[in-house]
Predict the 3D structure of the following.
Amino acid sequence: MKKSALQKARAAYQPKLPIVLTGAVQVVEGNPTDSVADQEAIRELFPNTYGLPEIKFEKKSTPSAGKPVNVGVILSGGQAPGGHNVISGLFDGIKKIHRDSRLYGFIMGPGGLVDHKYVELTSQIIDEYRNTGGFDIIGSGRTKLETKEQFDKGLEILKELNISALVIIGGDDSNTNAAILAEYYKAIGAPVQVIGCPKTIDGDLKNEVIETSFGFDTATKVYSEVIGNIQRDCNSAKKYWHFIKLMGRSASHIALECALQTQPNVCIISEEVEAKDMTLQDVVNYVADIVARRAAAGNNFGTVLIPEGLIEFIPAMKKLIAELNDLLAAKADEFAAVETANQRQWIIDNLSADNAKVYESLPHGVARQLSLDRDPHGNVQVSLIETEKLLSEMVGKRLKEMAKEGTYNGKFSPLHHFFGYEGRCADPSNFDADYCYALGFNAACLINAGVTGYMSSVRGLTKPSVQWIAGGIPITMMMNMERRHGAMKPVIQKALVRLDGAPFQKFASKRESWANNTEYVYPGPIQYFGPAEVCDQPTMTLRYEHNA
Ligand code: FBP
C-alpha cells in the first residue's frame, strides 16, 4: 500500500495509554447496577446479565501469568475515526496477556460472524492500520444480530476457532445486540464472553458512565474545519447563504459541537424544536427573520447549520413517522405489492386522518423518503432526506412574502452542503487515537477479567490521557424499553442534546450575537504534531459537560 508522508509519520505515533493499564491490573467491583428505566422488564429479559456491578481497574503489583486467548472482533454500523486503533489496542492487550493469543476479525460487520467470513489479524496486518481512519481493515456492516439462528450460527465458527471472547465495536443498536448475545451465550452455557465498545460519530452513545463515543471528536473537527473554510469564503464574497446539513442521525450533538467551534449565524437544534413544539414553518420563520435582520444591516450572507435528524423531531412529523413505522412493519408485504406510482396514495389511505394530512402536505421527495426502507434497526434513513434544500426553499418562499409585506429587502442566494461521509473515515485526532487504543486495550483487560455483557469504559477524558480511568459497565445498565418495528424492545437509551446541559446553554447564550454579527471562528485542520493546546484538546461538548 502506497503511503503519504503524513501517513508514514502518523504510523509511528504511539497512543498514550492510561497509566493504570500500563502494568498488571486488578478488578475493583462497584455496587450492583440497575437499568436506567423499565427495570422489571429489562431484568426479566436479561436474567443472567442484569444487575452486574460496574468494574474499575486498579494497578496490581504482582502480575499473574496469563493464558493464551482467542478473540473475535466485529466492526458494526457506520464508520467512525479510530476503529483501527480499537483493534490495535485489543491486539496489543491480548498479546500482553499471552504472546500466543490470537485475534480474528469478522468480515463486513456482524454478517461475517453469521456467514463464517473472517481473517486472522496478525501483527503485520495490524501495523499497516495503526492510527489510520476507516474500517477497511475488516470492513463494517449493518446486519442486525438478533435471532437465535444467527447466534447459533455464530457460535459454530467461534467454537471452530476456539474463540472465547467476542468484541463488538458499535453504536447503541449494536451494543444492544452485544448485550442480547452475551445473555444468550450465558443462558445456554456457551463459553464466549461478549464485550462492547462505544463507537459512533453521532455522539449519542453516552451517559453517566460513558463520557463519549469514539469518532465524535475527529468527525466534528473535520466538519468544523470545512464549515470554517466556508464561513471565510462567505465573509469574503458576502453574497451567499450556506445551508449546511450535518450528519448525526437523530441527536443534534454534531451540529451543536460544530456551532460551538465555528460560531455560525444560525444553528438549529432538533431537541429544542421538539421541546418548543415548533412546526416546520416555525423553523423556517426563525431562519427567515435572521436572514431579514442581517439583510437590513447590509449583510446578505450567512451560514445555517442543520442537524440531519431535524425532520424527525418536528412533533407533527414525529407522530407521522411513528405511525408510518408501525404501518410499514405491519403491512410490509401489502405495501411492497403496490405499484410505486400508487404508493403515496396507499399510505395516505392507510394513515390516520391527522397524519395523512401532514404526509400530504410534504414535498413529494421528502414524503417518499419517509416511506422507503428502514435500516436494519428500523430507523428512517434520515441522511437521505435533503433537509438543507427543503429549508432553504421554504425560507426563500417566506422571504418573498416578507418582501411583499415590506419587512424584507435583500438578496437571498442559497448554496447547499451536506457533511457526513467526509468526516467518518478521517485519520483519528490524537484524542480519538488515544481513546480508541485505550478502549481496545481495556477490552482485553475485561476479557482477562472473565466478564461478559460489559462495555469497555474509559473515563476522565478531559484530563491528559495518562490519567484516564479504565473499567467496564454492564450494558444492561444503559437500557430501557422502546418501540421498534411496531413492538417494545430493550435498547440502550439514546443520549439526545440536553437543553439544560452546559453545551446547549453556552450556545443559547451566544446565538443572538452570532446571528446579528459576523463572529465566525475558523478552527483549521486537525493537527497531529505540535503543542498540546493545538493538538490534544477534546471537544467543547466534553469540556463544557465536565466543566473543564
Ligand atoms: P452509526 O450509528 O452506525 O454510528 O451511524 C453513523 C451514521 O454516520 C449516521 O450519522 C448516519 O445517519 C448513518 O450512519 C448513515 O448511514 P450509512 O452509513 O448506512 O449511509
Remarks:
- The longest strand covers residues 25-32.
